[in-house]
């Protein structure tokens, strides 16, 4: 099976052939995969070199001409390094485009902390009007990329990862989908993108409702409210980026319901050993064993004395 980044190349190459409004801006990363597209569409496939601020600036300029720009590099270089350009060239200018990242939070540990971006979604949360897709499988990535490319002049971030669930789920670019339904009053666990399989393994045998999110912004308030029981609600958010990124959004959705929320995700402490992607997942407590312990401890009824 191909990975999400490889699927991005194939889907985008076809989309460039099909839609003359699309333009692709690269900063060296993944350039080899797009050489055939650059030969076919030299005016719409642009490589700016290792200049990430220019990557966003060129994309913003293309948007002002009426094109729909797709801008791509590693997440840390796409969102964090050129954040001012994103804020000004798209937010302030009122233009739209598609940011497509690779390597997510810690997919390439040997790249060091410069190549890790667990805070990307939280950073975009400081800006208005961004849709954020977090696919959990290459097939989902394809569907969400096509959705983003056809989304008029909206501002869209598609967060691709080397991590993947074993099988795809239907996605519509909107909100939460029920994967496992617990009994009346059962706690709700929201699994985001490539962490769904870990969450399902961790909650096997527990009386919980599992919701799956591949579109996290805008947050699906109605689906979360519909999943919790009347009265108090316990909600666990399991996100493949900075822990607690969506706790405020979930709390606002449940503002009229007594609730508790536990936000699980990537910790703030830097892991200074390279290791492997799976070792980083475990170190952040996002493997099935750690998730089981943390979810069970939060949702278990208190013992009576």
Write the layout of secondary structure elements.
Blueprint: H1 4-18, E1 22-26, H2 35-40, E2 45-47, H3 52-64, E3 68-74, H4 75-80, H5 83-92, E4 97-102, H6 120-124, E5 130-133, H7 138-149, E6 155-159, E7 176-180, E8 188-192, H8 196-202, E9 209-213, E10 215-217, H9 221-227, E11 233-242, H10 247-253, E12 259-266, H11 277-283, H12 288-299
Parallel strand pairs: 1-2, 1-3, 3-4, 4-6, 5-6, 8-9, 8-11, 11-12
Antiparallel strand pairs: 5-10, 7-9
Helix pairs in contact: 1-7, 3-5, 8-12, 9-10
The number of strands is 12
> What is the rounded Rg?
20 Å
CATH class of the largest domain: Alpha Beta
CATH fold-level label of the largest domain: Rossmann fold
Give me the side-by-side strand order of the main sheet. 2-1-3-4-6-5-10
Helix content: 25-40%
Q: How many domains would you count in the coordinates?
A: 2
User: Do you know the CATH architecture of the largest domain?
Assistant: 3-Layer(aba) Sandwich
Strand content: 15-25%
Alpha-beta classification:
alpha/beta
- In round numbers, the mean pLDDT is 95
Which spans have pLDDT < 50 for at least 5 consecutive residues?
Answer: none
Tell me the distance between the termini.
53 Å
What sort of overall outline do the alpha carbons produce when their principal axes are compared? globular
Sheet having the most strands: 7 strands, mixed
Write down the secondary-structure element order.
HEHEHEHHEHEHEEEHEEHEHEHH
Number of helices: 12
Q: What is the CATH superfamily label of the largest domain? A: Thiamin diphosphate (ThDP)-binding fold, Pyr/PP domains
Pfam family, one: Transket_pyr
InterPro entries: PDH/Transketolase (IPR051157), THDP-binding (IPR029061), Transketo_C/PFOR_II (IPR009014), Transketolase-like_Pyr-bd (IPR005475)
GO molecular function: magnesium ion binding
Organism: Streptomyces roseus
